[in-house]
From TrEMBL:
The lineage of its organism: Eukaryota, Metazoa, Chordata, Craniata, Vertebrata. Its main location: mitochondrion. It comes from Cyanistes caeruleus. It comes from the Eukaryota. Transmembrane segments: none annotated. It is found in: Mitochondrion. The keyword Transit peptide applies. GO terms for biological process: iron-sulfur cluster assembly. This is Iron-sulfur cluster assembly factor IBA57. Keywords: Mitochondrion, Transit peptide. The gene is IBA57. GO terms for cellular component: mitochondrial matrix.
Length: 165
């Protein structure tokens, strides 16, 4: 998922991490959107985002062996039942976006009009969305005013192979 490094000014970063590249904050956000990594309240709205739907289990952000945390019962029950219908996924917009961008929380639909999920956040042609896994491989769209904005979702390579099915 990349590295973040704090080093002394003037340090030779390629010496510390061979093959590394220096980027700015926009590069960082583009990278995490491509990887489907949530960060902050836009991607993980308080009171709405669930740990398993947010892929925190894949990032070792949930312990199923230690005790008490808020939401533990629901998270553990969902994990042990093995049924997670929605997850945060990277999305790509193939065409130029409207000048107003995509509003957070915009409803994502399949081409046949079924609800597929909600757009959480993004920048440029990349973003992150909470999607029903059953619709991940279908053509998707968002209706904005009179425009129909197409998008596609992908399963990140870093996910466990069983989860990508």
């Amino acid at each position: 998922m990349g590295w973040r490094l704090i080093a002394k000014k003037g340090a030779n970063l390629s010496e510390i991490i061979p093959g590394s590249q220096v980027g700015d904050v926009q590069d960082y956000h583009r990278h995490r959107y491509k990887q489907g990594i949530p960060e902050g309240v836009k991607d993980l709205p308080p009171g709405v985002a669930l740990p398993l739907e947010s892929n925190l289990d894949f990032m070792n952000g949930i312990s199923f062996t230690k005790g008490c945390y808020i939401g533990q019962e629901l998270t553990a029950r969902t994990h042990h039942m093995g049924v997670i219908r929605k997850r945060l996924l990277p999305v790509t917009f193939p065409a130029p976006l409207p000048s107003t961008g995509i509003p957070e929380g915009a409803e994502i639909l399949t081409e046949s009009g079924k609800r597929a999920g909600k757009f959480r956040a993004g920048g440029g042609e990349l973003g992150i969305a909470l999607l029903r896994l059953a619709h991940v491989n279908e053509p998707l769209c968002i209706h904005l005013g009179g425009d129909r904005v197409k998008l596609s979702a992908s399963t990140p390579e870093w996910w466990p192979k069983a989860a990508a099915k």
